[in-house]
Design a protein that fits this description.
This protein is elongated. Strand 1 and strand 2 (115-116) form a beta hairpin. The protein has helices spanning 3-8, 16-38, 42-69, 85-95, and strands at residues 111-112, 115-116. The N and C termini lie close together (9 Å). The chain has one domain. It is mainly alpha-helical and 125 residues long. It has a two-stranded antiparallel sheet with strand order 1-2. The chain crosses the membrane at residues 20-37, 43-64, 76-92. Keywords: Membrane, Transmembrane, Transmembrane helix. InterPro entries: DUF805.
Length: 125
């Protein structure tokens, strides 16, 4: 899976480890975007807003692939709209609970017997 597919595609499945790697990077990305939006410079503000919008789309795509690994539709992303519990529920389901074993309707298992499936789980440029 290419980095572009990992960040912007809703197709396929990803492992919990790839999810958490993205999650940590997204936290940094969000801080950087917020910093840029807080500067007194219109170009930096515009870049920060665009960066933040791209981040939001990427978050939904990555969460969608984790929902797929759990055997659920990416529509489960909408659970995040429930105040308070929604984001907690999504993070527990996508970050802590194991995905379906074997192939499901969304693709092959990202990891099998500790070996990465390069067509599903690896992020490369």
């Amino acid at each position: 899976m290419t980095a572009r597919n990992f960040l912007f595609s809703y197709k396929g499945r990803i492992s919990r480890s790839n999810f958490w790697a993205f999650y940590m990077g997204a936290m940094f990305w969000q801080l950087a975007s917020a910093f840029l939006m807080g500067l007194d410079n219109i170009i930096a503000n515009a870049f920060g807003i665009i960066s933040f919008l791209v981040l939001i789309y990427s978050i939904f795509a990555v969460y969608g692939k984790r929902w797929h690994d759990r055997g659920k539709s990416a529509k489960w992303n909408f659970i995040c709209l429930i105040p308070g519990i929604g984001a907690i529920w999504a993070t527990i389901e996508c970050g802590f609970l194991k995905g379906n074993e074997g192939e499901n309707e969304y693709g092959l298992e990202p990891y099998k017997d500790g070996v990465s499936r390069t067509d599903q789980a690896d992020v490369s440029m």
